Each structure stands twice: as C-alpha cells, then as structure tokens.
Amino acid sequence: MALPRARINLPLTWLGVVPFFVFVGLFLLLPTLYIVVGAFRTPEGGFTFGNILALNTPTILSAYWVSIKIAFWSSLIGCAVGFAMAAAVTVGAGPGWVKNPLLTFSGVASNFAGVPLAFAFIATIGPAGIITLYLRHEFGINLRLMGFNLLSTLGLVITYLFFQIPLMILIITPALEGLKREWKEAASILGATSFQYWRMVAFPILFPSILGTMALLFANAFGAVATAIALTGPSLNIAPILLYAQIRGDVLGSPNLGYALAFGMIVITGLANALYIVLRARSERWLK
C-alpha cells in the first residue's frame, strides 16, 4: 500500500513577491557577497587584510574624500530646496494645482541620470552650452573666466541636484502630509505664531525624517557612476570612476584591490541607508 504524498501548501499571497526575492538575491545579495569575499582574498585564493590596507593610498583616499564631498553637498542642498518646494505645495500657501504636476515631474526626474542627464547639462551650461554662449554674447558674462567649470566637482554637484531635489520632494511629501491639523490649531490657540509652530512643533517632528532622507540622498549620490563618467570622464578622481576604471582593467592592476574599493563604498552607503531606515522609523511614530 502506497503511502500518501505529503503536500506542501504555500500561501498564494507569496507568489507575487517571489520575483522580488529572486531579483534581490541574484543582483544584490550574491554580487555583494562576492565583492566582500574578494576584498579579503589574494589572487591565489588565500585570506588577507592586505587589500583593505592598500586602500590607504593618496589616490584612493582622495577619491573617497571627493566622493564624500560631492555626496554631502548635493544631499544637503537637495534636502533644503526639495523641502522648501514640497512644503510650499503641501502645507504652505503655494498654488494647489502645482502639486500634482510637481510630483509627476519629480517621479520622472528622480530617475533621470546617466548619459542623457550629462548631455542635457553639457548642452545647457557646458563650455559651449546654450546658456553659456547666451550670457557671453548678450551680457558679456564669461562663466569660464569667473571660475565656473561644469566638468568639475562643483559642476557634478549641480548636475546631481537635478535628481536629488525631486527625490527629496517624493520622500518628504508624505511626511508633510502626515502633520496633523490639530497640532497647528492647538499651537495657534496657545498664541504661537506660524514661525513658532514650525520651530517648536512641526520641524522637531519632521527633523528625523529630513535627516534620514539626507542620508538616503547621500548614499544615492555617493554611488552614482553613470552620470559622473558621462559628464567628466576619467578627469575627476572619485570613487565610482576609480572603481569603474578598475573593472575595465585600466588602473590598479589588482582585481582584489578593486573588490576592496567596492567594499569600502558598500560600507559607506550601507551606513547611510541604515541611518535613513532608523530615522525614518522614528519619524513615522509621530506621523501615524
């Protein structure tokens, strides 16, 4: 007599997220694990800390430092401008009809990067861009003589703001919409001005969310590579471009040192994302 087969009943609700877990496992977890292991291995396969210690060179440290500066300033300015724009159309006196077009544009612009974004900025404010030539011919303003160069650290920060500001708008808008009207009414009844309400009530509640979003924008800019390569090429020494050159085999000459360089980027972006998750969860406790 044959024994009945054991049946495994999986809830059908999990089928919809299976592609997500497969995608994350194949294209995020496995490559990350491969990089981490490679950062501590010799070309012969042995274990070593030499690759990590080799990061302490002027070229690599300078690349990390420039990347951190670009990520910090683009995230700081992106947070400030994006918050002001989102607040104006959400809880401020800005025209209500602007909100939906702004959110729609932000959804598109936050994902607009790489070669198209670099070309758009080069064609607009590059050395021979439309605005550059217009200012020179019509007003005698030479941006190059004034010290502005799009193919530089400052130029890269300005270019990154094109997707940093929209990303800030998308993330902070739900937090602004979560501010309860009763809080402002209670503050008004107690005699608080609008400025006092924002300084003592709204901003302290939103601050963890703002700081967490800034950490997310930092990670977003720190790991951006396509826009930087398309805009500046190898002329700017930043970590993503240095890593890209290592993958192509142009410099360094050690694949495992390249893994160590990528491992350092993973640590920095991982810490920034972890900070975002912690601060976001703290802010949501007030906004529920």
In short:
This protein has 288 residues and is mainly α.
List the defining traits of the structure above.
71% helix, 288 residues, 12 helices
Secondary-structure element sequence? HHHHHHHHHHHH
Number of distinct helices: 12
Average pLDDT level: 85
Ends distance: 59 Å
Structural class: mainly alpha
Described by strand count, sense and barrel closure, the largest sheet is: none
- Low-pLDDT segments, ≥5 res: none
Instruction: Indicate the CATH architecture.
Output: Orthogonal Bundle
Transmembrane segments: 12-40, 46-66, 73-93, 113-135, 147-176, 196-218, 225-245, 257-279
Protein name: Acriflavin resistance protein
Keywords: Cell membrane, Membrane, Transmembrane, Transmembrane helix, Transport
Subcellular location: Cell membrane
Molecular structure report:
- This protein has 288 residues and is mainly α.
- The chain has a single domain (30-287), classed as MetI-like fold.
- It has helices spanning 18-39, 50-53, 58-90, 99-109, 115-125, 130-139, 153-177, 181-189, 194-222, 226-232, 239-248, 255-287.
- Helix 1 (18-39) crosses helix 12 (255-287) and helix 9 (194-222) packs antiparallel against helix 12 (255-287).
- The model has no long low-confidence stretch (mean pLDDT 85).
- This is Acriflavin resistance protein.
- It is found in: Cell membrane.
- Residues 64-276 form the ABC transmembrane type-1 domain.
- One of its GO terms (biological process) is transmembrane transport.
